[in-house]
Hints:
By secondary structure, the chain is an all-alpha fold. It contains 6 helices and no strands. The protein has helices spanning about 10, 25-40, 60-65, 75-85, 85-105, 110-130. The chain is globular, with a radius of gyration of 17 Å.
Amino acid sequence: MCFGRFETKPYEMGLISTPIESVDGGLIHKMIRVLVHETCHIFYLSHCVFYECLMNESTSIAEAVSQPLFLCPVCLRKLQKVCRFNIIQRYNSLLDTLKEIGHKYPDENLTKNIAWLEKLLQWARVQSAITKV
């Protein structure tokens, strides 16, 4: 699988010789990550150098797979400013989507991302309750 660029070398070297015959959670996770990363470029987000982030540049498939599925606070704010979405609503929608995908295509990475989102949203609920007092 090519991560965001046209690369013929793996095919020319014979490293990739078989087509994808089945879809599993790992493949879905990789496809989501690449799709969202490249979509963020459409919204003028460059590669991130601040934190571990979905928008980090990668030089290999192994590096790309190890990077997070989520934007860092800097990139999230940039995208939020352009698209004007509610971050909590976005994360709730993302959680619902990942749960649905994870139910159909179980995967360790999807499970970790779901757990991270649930923990983040729980933290946000606590913070919201504190500010209302």
